[in-house]
## 1
Amino acid sequence: MAPSTSSFVPAVYSSGMIIALTGTPGTGKSTVARYLSSQGWKVLEVNELAKRYGLLKSKDVARDSFELDPDDLQQALVQEGMGEGVLVGHLAHLLDVNMVIVLRCHPSKLAERLADRGWPLAKVRENALAEALDIILAESMDGDAPVFEIDTTEMTPEGAAEATLSILAGENEKYAVGNIDWSEEALLWS
Ligand SMILES: Nc1ncnc2c1ncn2[C@@H]1O[C@H](COP(=O)(O)OP(=O)(O)OP(=O)(O)O)[C@@H](O)[C@H]1O
Ligand SMILES: [Mg+2]
């Protein structure tokens, strides 16, 4: 995404905040979340929330994924009474959160990871294209919460987790939106 013309707005985690840890499938959200959890952070996977509240009903067979309505998820989140912590999943940024962290991964590397999961080629390509086109980032920017993005392509899982923690600590200028541009990759995956 092109650098924003608006000035950078720093943000610091404080108690009572819910952070969305989002990104295209395979970017490493759950991996980072496990690390945060081991450090004592309260972490909730959106999929777990959906399961607990009986929202995993209608499956999109062509995409082999469940169709989830963000309004239903928001209702479940309220019912859950999650007072603070990290909400993890590729829909997390669509809920009522106080900060959004988008994990990014170069489309080619992401495609390798998704192929390693045994995903069909069409689904691999769909997600690599979504990453090249900044789809999750753009959706995140539509919300009101401050948004940051981390290019994890060359990071270890621990490195990605440390980068996430440094955003929460307020050292987040280097993760301002606009430094990642994989638009030239889009042709490869479309
Ligand atoms: N920084 C990293 N470096 C190398 N491999 C990683 C990194 N982060 C995650 N992985 C690997 O990539 C794969 C996907 O990671 P993970 O399951 O955490 O992604 P996810 O974003 O939670 O995906 P989904 O949205 O499908 O739940 C896993 O095999 C994981 O071990
Ligand atoms: Mg996950």
## 2
Amino acid sequence: MQVSSPFNPVSPQGLATKSLLELVLWLGAGVFVIVAGLVLVAAIRFRARPGAPEPPQVEGRHQWEYVWIAGAVAVLIAIFIPTVAMMRAAAPPGGSEDPGPDIIIIGHQWWWEIRYPHGGILTANEVHLPVGRPMVTRLESADVIHDFWVPQVGRKEDLTPGYPTTVVLQADRPGTYLGACVEFCGAGHAWMRISVIAESSQAFDAWLASERQPPPPPATPEAVAGEKLYASLSCDHCHASTVAVGPDLTHIAARQTLAAGRIANTPDTLGRWLADPQALKPGVLMPDFRLTPDQIRDLVAYLETRR
Ligand SMILES: [Cu+2]
């Protein structure tokens, strides 16, 4: 796993963000050195000495005011021009024939719904990208303001209810890039992680194809019992694609993590999640069903068939 930092970008959009960030940091450092240096010089050179008379009281110097203003304006211009260039580099390509977004990411308290509208695919918390291909991505919110940021992949962007925005997601190197919601959105905010999985074109197409397939029917007695239990406990009141109060579970076993990056996805952790979701993610909007160990075993067996 690579360090998730904007200084280690894997896309042209990320590179543009990094250049701008470095410029602003260097300019800020320069301003700091000048201001702190002048304060230090003044404090030492004009310090009160024993017996010295009160120095002349100067109230402002107009010539120097002009220099300050010109300096501040120059710094702002030096930031403004590359900012506009960076925004253009990170913006989706305009065009009259808009095929719609490749990906739609919808923030929920506290997980990410992910849709691939052209392929009719619905998943959660893990965005798959084909290496090197810019993917136009629409960001929406289902409830409160969230903020999407995967630092190596590109700029951060708010998800504001009622105001969808569009960004381009791209990764030129295969790998898994970590991100998170970076706008406080309630109790579960710290565990609202997201990852971008960049893979070869073939691997991406294979993933799309397997997500499009319905999972195989449960075969073992436990898995069959689990399927019945899943229906009788009305899990799909929240998890069905039409409701999306919780993540779609059609291919849950194919995902690497549970509960928006809270924990690796294994049969064991899946059982722990079902036994007590609150223990793993305090505040989570999934109730504790007070399931017996047998019920948990059956539900896990059933959910593990869904890949
Ligand atoms: Cu958040």
